[in-house]
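Hi R.,

As promised on Friday, here is the backbone we talked about, encoded as structure tokens. Could you run it through your design pipeline when you get a chance and send me back a sequence?
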């Protein structure tokens, strides 16, 4: 049986290091997901919820299309990163299997995608609030016997609120 391990990073560099370490330990990049607020898609007048620069066509991540602002940084280290406009959150960049869940529930926001991914609704609301604040979510589906290894690794790189569900 597999579990979703999730953690919140405050710093992009630390999230990148954790993802690179996961890959070096043999975890498949295609199993690692991240969600980060796309600051390049925000307006300069403080509104991340306006989603300027995004169109409906850009919301299909199933093809692994890279859209929205320049996807450098943490999102650029995973294949298939793309931009979504999430109501109530604003523009985000998502990559990995979780991105596919988000494309199907754009109206349900990040909460709907996380619930479909196996995270309880109450915790999903909390994690969505962390993305709104500019934090980075990193998740990975792993077999039960790998949960402790991934949890420990994420914490070692500074992840907060590391949980498995």
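Update: got your reply. Pasting your designed sequence below so it's all in one thread:
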């Amino acid at each position: 049986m597999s579990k979703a391990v999730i953690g919140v990073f405050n710093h992009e560099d630390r999230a990148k290091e954790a993802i690179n370490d996961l890959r070096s330990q043999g975890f498949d990049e295609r199993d690692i997901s991240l969600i980060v607020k796309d600051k390049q898609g925000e307006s300069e007048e403080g509104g991340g919820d306006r989603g300027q620069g995004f169109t409906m066509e850009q919301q299909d991540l199933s093809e692994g299309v890279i859209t929205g602002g320049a996807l450098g940084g943490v999102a650029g280290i995973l294949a298939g990163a793309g931009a979504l406009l999430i109501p109530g959150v604003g523009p985000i960049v998502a990559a990995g299997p979780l991105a596919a869940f988000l494309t199907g529930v754009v109206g349900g926001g990040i909460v709907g995608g996380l619930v479909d991914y196996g995270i309880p609704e109450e915790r999903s609301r909390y994690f969505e609030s962390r993305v709104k604040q500019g934090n980075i979510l990193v998740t990975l589906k792993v077999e039960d016997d790998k949960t402790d290894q991934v949890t420990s690794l994420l914490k070692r790189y500074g992840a907060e609120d590391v949980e498995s569900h």
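One thing I noticed while checking it: Confidence is low (pLDDT under 50) at residues 43-72.

Thanks again,
M.
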